[in-house]
Amino acid sequence: MVTTTPSPTLKALTSEQVEAFRHKGYLAPLPLFTQDEAAALRADYPRLKALLLPELQISRINWWHKRNRTLYNLCMHPRVLDHVEDLLGPSFFLWGSQFFSKEPHDAAHVPWHQDAKYWPLAPQHSVTVFIAWSDCSPDNGCMRVVPGTHRTDDLLEHGMLTDPNALLPRIVQDSRVDYDTAVDLVLEPGWISLHHDGIVHGSGPNTSDRPRIAWTCRFSAAEVKCDLSVWPTFQAFPARGDGPFNHNPIGVPPTTEGAPTGMMQ
Question: Strand 183-184 relative to strand 143-146: parallel, antiparallel, unpaired?
C-alpha cells in the first residue's frame, strides 16, 4: 500500500525524489550531515553504548528517544524533519528509534521483512530515517531493499524463524517478491536512507573487519493511531504541525542521558 502526502512546499527533496519514493519505496543515498557532524556521532557511540545494562545488546533494545536527550535531539534535527515532512506532510510525530549495529565479523542479520507487519499502526503512513554512523557497505551488512514491494494491496505473508542470529523473529514468505531485484543501500557516514513501512528489506551479517553502526528514527503522519492493546507503552512525540495528535498518548521529551532497558518500553 502506497501512502505519501508530500508537503505543499518541499524543503529537502525534489518533486522527482518524492515521486521516486512513491514508486520504489525508498530513497538513498542522501547526504545529510557533514563529515565533522558524522565524526561527532561516531565519537559519541561508546558513551551511549556504555549507558546500557551489561547484559543488554544495543541492537536488541529500542525507543532511546524516550530516555536520552541527545538521541531525541538527533531524531528532531531540522534537516531530518525536513526530509520526513516532504514525504508525510506538514503534521507528523516521532514514535520509534533504534540502533542497528554489527560488530566486525558479527553473524547478526535482519531477515527480509516489512516494518508494517510488526507495527499495530493504522492507517499505514510511516517513514523510517536510517542514519549511517559508520560506512554501510555490502561487506559489513548494509541494508538491502526490494524496490516496489510496498505497492501491494495487503501486507505479505511472513513465517517464523528460530535463528538466534536473526534480529527479527519473522521472514517474508511470499512468491510475489523478486529478490533478484534487491538493491544494496551503500552509505557514507552521515548519509541517510528513507524507506516506506511496506517495503521488503533486510541486511546480511558483517563479514568485514569494520563495525557497521546505524541509527533509525520512525515517524508517522498525524492521523496514524496505535493499537494500545498491542503496544500499551506507545507514545507520540509531535515533531511538526498542529496534529491533532491526541488520539495517541503524548510523550514528554527526555531531559537526561538515560538508556532503554528493553524493547518497546
Answer: antiparallel
Residue 255 lies in a domain: no
For 167-226, write each residue's pLDDT tens digit: 889 999 988 899 999 999 999 999 999 999 999 999 999 999 999 999 999 999 999 999
Burial grade of 110 (CB within 10 A; 0-12, 13-18, 19 or more): buried
Q: What is the pTM of this model?
A: 0.95
- Tell me the pLDDT tens digit for each residue of 80-129: 999 999 999 999 999 999 999 999 999 999 999 999 999 999 999 999 99
Q: Backbone dihedral region of 121: left (phi > 0), alpha (psi from -120 to 50 degrees) or beta?
A: beta
Cα gap 27→48, rounded to integer Å: 28
Q: Domain for residue 221, yes or no?
A: yes
What is the DSSP code (8-state) at residue 95? E
**Look-up of cell digits 561487506:** 139
Spatial distance between the Cα atoms of 248 and 222, rounded to a whole number of angstroms: 10
How far is the CA of 159 from the CAs of 111, 145, 194, in angstroms?
11, 18, 25
**Domain total in the chain:** 1
CA separation for the pair 22, 165 (Å, rounded): 32
Q: Domain with 168 in it: what CATH number?
A: 2.60.120.620
The distance from CA 150 to its chain's CA centroid, rounded to whole angstroms, is: 15
73 assigned to some structural domain? yes
Give the domain range for residue 63. 15-240
The rounded distance, in Å, linking the Cα atoms of 108 and 100 is: 10
Given a contact cutoff of 8 angstroms between Cβ atoms, the answer to whether 84 and 219 are in contact is yes
Task: Tell me if 112 sits within 8 A of 157, measured CB to CB.
Answer: no
The answer as to whether 111 is a domain residue is: yes
Q: Angle between the 15-24 and 78-88 helix axes, to the nearest 10 degrees?
A: 70
